[in-house]
Design brief:
Elements: H1 4-11, E1 24-30, E2 35-43, E3 49-57, H2 60-73, H3 78-81, H4 86-92, H5 101-122
Antiparallel strand pairs: 1-2, 2-3
Helix pairs in contact: 1-2, 2-4, 2-5, 4-5
The protein binds FE2/S2 (inorganic) cluster.
């Protein structure tokens, strides 16, 4: 049911933890399943993501998607990190079962929330970044563009 990559990232999640004095921190939850994810970003003066860590109180798919999402955003600029959508994360994991697609949205939204926090702290605007929702439970994952 799960790809090998999903199982790998679930069993050995990368970049678990916190970043002290993070450039941006984002927390999102899904009230429907009760899962919560927090992302920490360390961003340098050139707006490049030096490090990213996460904590997830959630299901296995949420752990695997957040783990993969951290790997995908490290080394990218904040602008490039916006391209790390839930679809991109799922593709990198060789897919998720349809009932678990919503879990990957937590990872995308948590990154956006952390980027939003970074932008607010530094008084900058990240082109294309929308204010994240704290609860993504009402979102329909099929509608992602
Ligand atoms: Fe809630 Fe997976 S079931 S994030």
């Amino acid at each position: 049911m799960y790809s090998e990559k999903v199982m790998d990232h679930f069993s050995n999640p990368r970049n678990v933890g916190e970043i002290e004095d993070a450039s941006g921190v984002g927390t999102v939850g899904n009230a429907k399943c009760g899962d919560i994810m927090r992302m920490y970003l360390d961003i340098d003066e050139n707006q490049v993501i030096r490090d990213c860590k996460f904590k997830t109180f959630g299901c296995g798919a949420a752990v695997a998607t957040s783990s993969m999402a951290t790997e995908l955003v490290i080394g990218k600029t904040v602008q490039e990190a916006l391209q790390v959508t839930n679809v991109a994360v799922m593709e990198a994991l060789d897919g998720l079962p349809p009932v678990k697609v919503h879990c990957s949205l937590l990872a995308e939204e948590a990154i956006h929330a952390a980027l939003w926090d970074y932008a607010e702290k530094n008084n900058i605007k990240i082109e294309g970044l929308k204010k994240p929702k704290e609860d993504i439970g009402d979102e329909d994952p099929v509608d992602e563009d």
